[in-house]
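Sample A.
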Amino acid sequence: MNTIKRIDPRRPFTITADGLRRITLGAIGVAGALDFTAASGAHREQPKPRRTTAAPSHTMLVAAHADRGALDEHARQTLAAAALVADASTEVVLLVFGEFTGDAAALGADKLIELPMFDRRKFAPVDELNALAACVAAYAPVHVFLPDNATGDGDLGRRYAAAANASVATHVVEIDASHVAAYVHANTALASRALPEVVLLAANAVDPKLPFVGAGERVVWRFDGESASAKGTVRDLGIEEMDAAQLALEEADFIVSAGNGVSDVPAFERLAATLGAAIGASRVAVDDGKFTRDKQIGATGKTVEASVYIAFGISGAVQHLQGIKDCRHVIAVNLDASAPIAKRANLTVIADAQETIAALNDAAAAARSARGTGAALLNSKAVAEGALA
């Protein structure tokens, strides 16, 4: 008998501090869950309580890669999912591949294990699998959570499930302490099952804002990656550098984008080449014929996830803001301090976009003259991130 329940595929399922829509954590199927509804109206600046202070008898493990010392939004959502479904006797252990400088407690972790020898620029699937397996052996978690992404975590979760012969659920869009669910049949139906040993969570299934904090204890845990590498069958050939202009916007980590306030397109393109950034544009700039349609960013164009996104002369219509919602740092250059994009930006420069582009090109030319052509390329993405830190 087919027990798959049909639903509206456009209807999202989101877990929040109050639980799933229609399913409230602490009220249905969550033994020992803490009730924070009384504190939901508290002032945001008030200290958050610890999720649990009880002696742990169980463990949930969350594994994810760090990006320049931080977890991305998808990884934070996965950690929040584990913290939300954990009961008072379960501790949440975060295993980070790469250097991590964030606040693990604020993200909901009770313990933090950092493996700085791994990062997303290094392809070492065998070593990472061995490290995850060793951590599982040490902590014996009842469940292992990973983000189901295409940047290493999804592949690692599948490799581990296959190697450990563990039950696994992928592309999970709905979760609580008793079950997970995922879309099937071309996203027209929802399949549900009991919480498996390995959970690969889809993006945006969980609200990462938590009403509590974890213990945040940093654990010194050593993993001998060298011996595993010697026996591995995968060889890392390194990263192949390419012209940022040839990179798909969806894959670009640094983007400069032009709007109606950019009149000198060649000067803007020179700046993008100097900074080593991919080029994007608003719908208005594309409609005016300044850029091709494949450069358009927004609801009717591309959705991007850049670490740094600089918008020159873009007011920030709702459709454009939807296309940059997953960008890590947004810098806006605009004459209008009340433009919608200023509310989204981490840093807003109140200036004429064209004059700012010209000044940056002059600064780049001066840097080339001062340092020589060998050091002409400015590490502008690092400078931008430093200004926002």
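Sample B, a different protein:
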Amino acid sequence: MLVLATGVLAGLAGAALMVLLHTAGHLTYAYRSGSFLAAVERAGAPRRVVALALAGAVAGIGWWLLRWWTGPGGPEVSAALWRDKGHLPLRRSLGTAVLSVVIVGMGASLGREAAPRLAGAALASRLSDWARLDTAHRRLLAACGAGAGMACVYNVPLGGALLTLEVMLGVLSLRLALPALATSCIATAVGWILLPSGPTYQLPDVPLSASLTVFAVLIGPFAGLLAVGWVRLIRIAHELRPKGWRPLVAPLLVFTAVGALAVPYPQLLGNGKDIIQLTLGAQLAAPALVALLLLKPIATAASLGSGASGGLFTPTVATGALLGALAGQGWTLAWPGAPAGFAVVGAAAVLAAAMQAPVAAIVLMLELTRTIDALMVPLLLAVTGAMVVSRRLDTPSIYSVRLPAQ
């Protein structure tokens, strides 16, 4: 009964948060249809800067008021699961989730998945309080709620379940697989009431080729090195998060700077979904790929370091896709291949090494693009290479690196 209730609540919360996300974007950039990037480009340079400045003001004032209203401490899913026995404050968590999707909808360079993960885990935690569950079952239900929230908004039921097991619980266990699968599938089905049921990214046909397979072997270690640098950058940003009164003004300053960078590079705004789609369609030239590969991680880390709350999933995928697309352009000069395949392989490899979750990363990329046959072997090869490098360098997960020091 609790698993069923968690799946339903996580699905409803995820769908509602995505409606709020799109509403914030439509109001900020005055558009009704089309992609977020197209609306940002039509809005013009001054509006981009003003929109990000407003998002920074909302972030700083909103979180300061939320902390004043709910008291000290902060909801982090990973910290709650590994340090706080699965306890998450409901008001603080839902308030943070709402603020997070609003600023991402306004163009903040952060992921949208943090909000549904947090809401799903907090609702599961409240159900655990009602049912008086012990610590082990409370942690399990909260992790299932978090995975179900993400599964709902990305339409990835199997990937959401694996994220629950491999990332949030740290173990692939048959005993835990059933509740994780059930909550993710239920939440995804509930989300279909308001959310699209198709793939998140449109991928052209990618035939299996020797070129893509050899490319996957070679790009894996480089993707692992990029993931290591990305995780370390997030650790530095988290350690530099402002204290005291500074969270009131830090998001305003940082977000305004990101808005200024978005004048020449509007692709920086948002979570990175449009960047990924552009790389899959080979619509970015090499200079733009280089610039975005440098600027997108910096913009995301700076936004997180300013004190704002947001996710890292899509920015991580976007960073890997940029690496794959850029390396693929050089590779095709010597051995032609499908551009979309290079981007997906790079994205999966960086995601796996950054999350320290190879199985979940592979399944997530296959579900996000709804393809399996031609990409399975290249994905496995690239992810293996990336994981070997990241493990040799003793790299933690991008989620565990943000845990507060004990």
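Observation for Sample B: The domain at 210-402 is CATH 1.10.3080.10 (Clc chloride channel).
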